[in-house]
Amino acid sequence: MLRVGVFGGTFAPVHNGHVAAAKAFMEQMKLDYLFVIPNCIPPHKEPDSFDDPLYRLKMCELAFENIDGVVISDVEISRGGKSYTYDTLKELERPNTRLFLLCGTDMVLSFDTWYRYEDILKMCYPAYVRREDDPVITKRIVAKLGEYYEKHGVMFRKIITEPVKISSTEIKRAVREGRDISAMVPPSVEKFIRENRLYIDRG
């Protein structure tokens, strides 16, 4: 049985927290390989008016280029429109393949609002990684995970890793203000952002 991970998101831009989460996910779930999938249009938030999905795709390629087993997929960008996880998993389903889905904190808390989320829970093994260590949020997550188990009999696996307190919003703000971002993104991603003047006077 092939073990395949799915790690989707906006990645605007991809940063060191994403890379650390992906590595921990691959190791702890013993994945044969991992799809990193930038979305086209995120279904739960408004995209940046200056957003270019192909730039985000390229930055993911740069960030993960030296990590064995990672495949950067344009499946959602090529499909166009709003990117629903259900549709992506349907495309990735194969015989003798077990899919694992990585979620962040915000995704865990809102999972039951996703398009066809009950079907998603039947299609994959969900896992989550924390991006913070706030005890208030911890209580909310524990309650939500208990709710999913009680209603659907599904246990989200926890990926153990040190929380990396970096956000894409913080990176874009730093770029606009002319501050150093070398500690937040891989060197190749920083170079790409600088060369293409991304996030200058943008949200």
Strands, helices and their partners?
Blueprint (H helix, E strand, L loop, with lengths): L1 E8 L6 H13 L4 E6 L14 H12 L5 E3 L2 H5 L5 H8 L4 E7 L1 H6 L6 H7 L1 E5 L5 H18 L4 E3 L8 H9 L10 H9 L8
Parallel strand pairs: 1-2, 1-4, 2-3, 4-5, 5-6
Helix pairs in contact: 2-9, 4-6
Structural notes for this entry:
This protein is globular. Strands 3-2-1-4-5-6 form a six-stranded parallel β-sheet. It has helices spanning 16-28, 53-64, 75-79, 85-92, 105-110, 117-123, 135-152, 168-176, 187-195; strands at residues 2-9, 33-38, 70-72, 97-103, 125-129, 157-159. The protein has nine helices and six strands, in the order βαβαβααβααβαβαα. The chain has one domain (2-166): Rossmann fold, CATH 3.40.50.620. α2 packs antiparallel against α9 (187-195). It is α/β, with parallel strands linked by helices.
What tags apply to this protein structure?
6 strands; 9 helices; 43% helix; six-stranded parallel sheet; Rossmann fold; globular; alpha/beta; 203 residues
What is the H/E order?
EHEHEHHEHHEHEHH
Number of domains: 1
Which class in CATH terms?
A: Alpha Beta
DSSP summary, beta strand count = 6
Report the portion of residues in β strands. Answer: 15-25%
State the CATH superfamily name: HUPs
Helix count? Answer: 9
The CATH architecture assignment turns out to be 3-Layer(aba) Sandwich
Put the structure in a nutshell.
Strands 3-2-1-4-5-6 form a six-stranded parallel sheet. It is built from nine helices and six strands, in the order βαβαβααβααβαβαα.
